[in-house]
Amino acid sequence: MPIVVERIAIAGENPVPSPVATYQRSPAGQSLWLASGHIADFQSCVPTNTLDARALLGNRPGATNVEGEGFIAVEVCNDVDTHMDVVVCSADGSVHTTVQMFQTEDDVVWFSARDAKRIVDASGEVSYIFAAILSSAIRHEPLNAWTICVDSKGALKARVKLSSHLEWLADAPRLRTEAVHWKTGDGTRPSGLVEKYIAPRENSKLIFKGGCYQIICHTFGTGASSSPGYLVISPNYRGSRGRGHEFAHAANLGGPLAAWGATKSKTRFKVAILGAGTTNWESQVMAALEQSTPWDHDAPEGSERKTSPVHSVAGVTTAILIIHGDKDDRVPVGQAIGFWRGLKRRAELVVSPREAHE
């Protein structure tokens, strides 16, 4: 059954709903009703839609809007950086970008903690105000509220720090953080974050992010798991946003990559921690919702078996901690139990009651 979006008048007696749009599934992002009459629907995590833009705010109809126009502030992701664009939707159907309000520079906007406004003063001058929670691991700046104001051409008018939270962290041991890029065998240049204390490197930690289309960027505190003498590497593998649809079209691979790295390398890692990860792709596609199945594409025969960590447990000496929720509807808990049974005494299994995938 499709999802139907309707508008209903709040004045008058017995208002009749008027259909606006229908969807085969619920939109993943915000649906904004603009002054121009447009319905702007941003779907940020659906594989068949664009992944590089998300709606922030559409200005409501009012005295500050140009008649017949609607304004949206959009976050556009480009690798580990983002910028905020003002997009104008006109009544004649045209859509165009006018102003760039903000560009990250060694910092990052904290998830959805952002908002934007279009302001017209008494003289008719237009400006845009962008407010967000920003942080920077590179500059050792914790999360705080900032506001940025630009004029109608995007020139900076003011940048003001509104809060001073976590000041005590200024005395915490300082991490050296930098974004890195490397070249893969097929010519792709993924990115990642490298963090270390200013001390000789003795050991390394490899941290795989989870979550479809998420990305590791310059957020302060990302290397909280680090300690003196350790190098922390957080790669943005295929499945991350900021590189377009083809690069991002991948499954949630944080857990599977941890299991795959431990079983393929056998002895390279001392410890691996696997959280809610798929270890047997053959059984996964039978028991949970997946984007593709072995029988509806032309994958080489046995490809699911070749990439399933459960088939490579022989000879593993890495100590592995497996954590899973018994109410996980995305990756069934049997994935953890089967992997643990295959590893036998080389692994510990912790099943959390009533816990889902998140």
Count of individual beta strands: 19
- Share of β-strand residues: 35-45%
Shape assignment: globular
Let me know the average pLDDT.
Answer: 77
Strand order of the largest sheet: 5-6-7-8
Do you know the CATH topology of the largest domain? Rossmann fold
The CATH homologous superfamily of the largest domain is named Alpha/Beta hydrolase fold, catalytic domain
Number of helices: 5
Number of domains: 2
Assign the CATH class of the largest domain. Alpha Beta
Gap from first CA to last CA: 27 Å
**CATH architecture verdict of the largest domain:** 3-Layer(aba) Sandwich
Residues in helices, as a percent range: 10-25%
Alpha-beta content class: mainly beta
Radius of gyration, in Å, reads 24 Å
Low-confidence stretches: 47-67
Largest pleated sheet = 4 strands, antiparallel
The helix/strand order is EEEEEEEEEEEEEEEEHHEHHEHE
GO molecular function, one term: serine-type endopeptidase activity
Keywords: Hydrolase
Pfam families: Peptidase_S9
Protein name: Dipeptidyl-peptidase V
